[in-house]
Amino acid sequence: VFICFSFEVKVELSLLEKEKEVDGLSPNGKASPFADSRPNGALGHGSDDDSTPLPLYHKPRDYVEASVCHVKDLENGQMREVDLGSGRALLIKEHGEFSAMAHKCPHYGAPLVKGVLSKGHVRCPWHGACFNIATGDLEDFPGLDSLPTFQVRVEKDKVIIRANKQALQSQKRSKPMARCSAVINSSMGFSHVLIIGSGPAGLVCAETLRQEGFTDRIVMCTMDRHPPYDRPKLSKSLDSTAEQLRLRSMEFLQDHDIELLTEKEAVAIDVKTRSVTFEDGLRMEYRKLFIATGSKPKPMIYKGKDVRNVFHLRTPEDANSIARLANNKNAVIVGTSFVGMEVAAALTDKAHSVSVIGIETVPFKKALGEKVGKAIMKVGTQSWYNMKHLQNTIILKEVVLKSGKVLRADACVIGAGSIPATGFLKQSGIHMDSKGFITVNKMMQTSAEGVFAGGDVVVFPFPPRNNKKVNIPHWQMAHVHGRVAALSMMGRAAEIQTVPYFWSAMFGKTIRYAGYGEGFDDVIIQGDLDELRFVAFYTRSEEVVAVASMNYDPIVSRVAEVLGSGKTIKKRDVE
């Protein structure tokens, strides 16, 4: 059954400013690709003012010192955001010891005081990133940067923090990275590590290598024309430019000897000669290869494919064009994927009308269950119609449905799902499954020697499901894959130790999700679905495998913390 949900701009949206800033639309959203490299302790930090960059010699005026509370004001396991005059810090008490660090998550700026403190780290309430409270190091994703930490001492029952002013202002720092010591000619057709793809998997792989002391050449190739950017924001903030979404600047990459080749499409890999051929004829040999090409839109058969106002949302330019063409006009979204629904939501306050055509009776039914899907659907829909089939005709000004209904379309967005971008590997001999996903082991190694893969393109053994091979196309998971692959390349065994974390923002509301809910057989809902303040626990037989929430922070991060510690949550515990 095809459904058409129709949004009119008259819909009153209670766009919570807080939520808007929270998840889709923080002003820069700049993050930095640093995976935790704690297993070997090679580049750990002391807890004294780890901020970057700082001059070699600090003058006293570079610091601020303040008495922030009485020693008895905080119990063990408590956190408090404190003001030092030149900025704010997060004060933490655990096991009788005080520590202090930056108070905002570097990913999207979440207040960490609202997060979850457990076993020496703080987990962000919004998207689950973890930071070590002693070092400030990023220990789980998403995001790229770590936090500066500050000195704490107790004098006469007063807790005093001494902090570097610059660190207080920046609220983030990069982990130290090695430089490339190899003599390199940029035209040289060889790279010790070649990375295909500049999303979070590729970026984290490159930066983890440098953080771990790798000093040979790293080349990262991308089909994009821009340096790495925050792709999940495209569908939530259609007006954002590549510059606003940027994760790393060209200068940053150059400073750390990560070479970026833009507008480079890989067309073939020869695992025997260890070489990659690109569409423009460039051929590059490698010692280690990391494939992180992500996914591409699922092909649809319809007339009018080449019409200018029909889009698959892939780039900032696509997003900007959709926003421009739909302004005060009629927009049609084909597909009720998360991306499709996010675009629909983003257009409701821009377009004259927004219509969504979907094959499901309820959006997100497979991922979130019928009750949650219906609750979300109610937020933005005034009316919806049963449609038998799409008539496979998208023309410049209208979309025609099999029922005969005609939808005016000044801009049309196809959001009907995706497939792995692995077509170029067909003759490579690298093993893929029947759907085109690359199969990797727990070290992110493919069937070909020296070739690794990660992100949306892989199926990998997932420990919580007895190492069943799964595909988890989350932004956060791609970061983890990049880190594990980098450590594997350097001969340092590291396994995936994370809880999958996902979020979606629409109509000023944010849904958070943690775990792996594939095959859930029951949903236990607490809270109020009508008010969109709820938590949903997804269970398989008697065990909780995933959780989703709206307006119920930090429950999802709390559950992620429990699952991440290796514990199980039973259905009876929830009930």
Automatic annotation (TrEMBL):
User: Which InterPro entries does the UniProt entry name for this protein?
Assistant: FAD-oxidoreductase/Apoptosis (IPR050446), FAD/NAD-bd_sf (IPR036188), FAD/NAD-binding_dom (IPR023753), FAD/NAD-linked_Rdtase_dimer_sf (IPR016156), Reductase_C (IPR028202), Rieske_2Fe-2S (IPR017941), Rieske_2Fe-2S_sf (IPR036922)
- Region entry Disordered: which residue ranges? 22-55
Keywords of the record, alphabetical order, are: 2Fe-2S, FAD, Flavoprotein, Iron, Iron-sulfur, Metal-binding, Oxidoreductase
> How is this protein annotated for GO cellular component?
mitochondrion
| Entry's Gene Ontology molecular function annotations | 2 iron, 2 sulfur cluster binding; metal ion binding; oxidoreductase activity, acting on NAD(P)H
Q: Does the keyword Ligase apply?
A: no
Domain annotation Rieske: ranges: 66-161
What's a BP term from Gene Ontology annotated to this protein? execution phase of apoptosis
Instruction: Please give the Pfam families that the UniProt record associates with this protein.
Output: Pyr_redox_2 (PF07992), Reductase_C (PF14759), Rieske (PF00355)
Q: Which family does it belong to?
A: Belongs to the FAD-dependent oxidoreductase family.
This protein is called: AIF family member 3
Q: What gene name does this entry carry?
A: LOC116056781
